[in-house]
Amino acid sequence: RLARQTASPPAPSAGGWIQRCEMPKSLLTPGLVAAEDSDSEESNLAPLAETGLPVESEDQETEVDQDVYGFAITSLLRDAHPVAVGDKGTKWLRFSRLLLSMGTLFCSIGVQFSILCCTKLFVASKAAHDIKQAYNEFEIHMYGDDPDHMEVTNGHARGKREFFQPELFESMEPDRQVAICSMSFSEPFFLMLVLFIWTVTCLSEIKRACEIFALMVIYLPTPVQRCHQLAVMMRPDAEDEEERAVLRFQRHGFDPLQARGLWSIIAEQKSWNKKLDREKVVLICGLTCCSKVLVTGLVLLPRLLLTICLLWLGCRWILATMNFEEMLLNAVALQFLVNLKDLFYHVCVSARGKADLRMVRVRYRRPSVGPGAWTCCIFVFPFAWALAALVWVLVYVFFLQRVLPGFRWDIHDVCEDLIREDYSG
């Protein structure tokens, strides 16, 4: 079989994209650097220097996420090609798995989007209407019900700061006092703390989507020549003769220098691979441009857009809450929407599908610019997400929120005594 493949490479097909390669574990597609635990580092790096590839880089191997997004990505990469070329042996089995994985993904996204729309229409909009009406009445009362003391912002009354009369709060009905002082805006620190937690939750999803994009699109190499597969995969325990391996690498888009550089590290890896129980592990070591576009457009982009919508709706709903307890409960309810991807994965994916997903690894090479720089990136960059969450909360509350446009921040001071009296233990 190998002789026939090396003698006559497969002809290009309109829909064919994927082919499994039986190669040793350490091999990457165009990334190509020396293997781990090498006895002769100089000899292994020599072929790579000739190709002009970066020598200072780090070998990385990571698992695919155990959720509907990871399941869809692996199924798309592993099953699309046999279905497209009409592999009679496994066509319908792979088609079923591809249909199940993509159906589960789009079902999860559809349910999340539907709940998102219904929450905005039936819950958040009603809460925003109620809090706008309550604050409008508060402004009219606290500024003496005098049109000269007021200005109109988006159709709602807002008092001029110099005419604020805090003593009028005592003449307000007790029920209205409690309602006003229970608004989320009455305790800015508590409000921003809850918003910060929710923002960090959403940014964790955005961060993961960006990490997968960097892994699949940036770090995973793309064959230098035209390749008719969606992904380059390999078995870590396979053994290939040199010429057959070199021809196989060339069919996947490598030039001869890169192919020889790959083979130069096979021998040293054989003994190490035999020590590992990796017979069922499949390594994704390269993606074509077509596959990167599909993964980005079908999986990562919908995930990113959905998370951004969740972030916006959650912040709006939390701001529109008229009760401190409900504000916390709303944040917990929103967390449920984020976790729907895990719920659908555990319910809709079979045990065999989960086991296959656990056996998939992504083998990639990330270029390095020096030990000091990587140390800085590793330990400092994650804090940028927390800083971004803090900046988003401040910008949203003070500039972007449309729940109470033109908010005067005049509730906290007049409600301080009432809150201390009602909420003191």
TrEMBL record:
It comes from the Eukaryota. The keyword Transmembrane helix applies. The chain crosses the membrane at residues 98-123, 189-206, 281-313, 372-399. Keywords: Membrane, Transmembrane, Transmembrane helix. This is Uncharacterized protein.
